[in-house]
Hints:
alpha+beta, 7 helices, 46% helix, two-stranded antiparallel ribbon, 3-stranded antiparallel sheet
Amino acid sequence: MSKRVTAKDKTGKEWWIVTPNVGVYSFATNPNKVTFLEIFYFFAQHLIKIPKKLKAEDEKRIRESRLRILLELDNRVQQLLFFANESRKQGTKILQTKPRRKICSYKPYQIFLSHLTAYLNALHSLRDEVLAIDNLMGKNYSEKIWQKDWFKIDVDIRTLLHHIESPMFTTEGQQFRFRFERLDLMDKKKAKFLTDPEQTSAELLLDPKDISKDAMDDLNIWAKKYLNLLDKTATMEAVTGYQKDGRTKTKKVTLGALMKVAHIT
């Protein structure tokens, strides 16, 4: 999650910026909060190749790279986490509530389905953002993420929910059981997990408790690969507070120091 920092310059004019969390010293020095992804948002911009003679297309590429790394990726991540949290809250509420009547509203299930669909759409957008950054960096570090079963299953469920079918589903223990009956309408050549051309239906179990854990774990591993390319003595100026005239106070923090306390999730 990024921070919005407001301050003043020497003339007293107010300005503001959006900075990655590690741009604030109290966050950067808290080992319980610093992940490799949070560090990536700030330091990965140092990997952008800048030619000695800049052309118009170079300036466009550099600006796009910085925006995607510093802000746009975090926008996508926060969307993912928000809908994951809403899905988890609504799903837990349903799973822990014992119906008092034989006839009760189905609306809580429909609300859960709307959050789940939004989460899967956010995951799809996040994948596009990560692929765009890989392309701009000239790397393919995210390739293994898209080959994992959790991603293949999530993407196929997203295809079904978003394009083909709004299914019936119910609870089974502490999970939800979904039944899809229109797999024959899927393009099996584009499917990731449900690839059997003869399969027309499927039942899948979903535990909403840790719905975003796989995505966030693998995203942090991806970010760490980029950070390992950098000189660990690279520094940043993190905001520690304000001077009397409204200007910011800062303190240098090295990449190496941050990586020593960073964790996956």
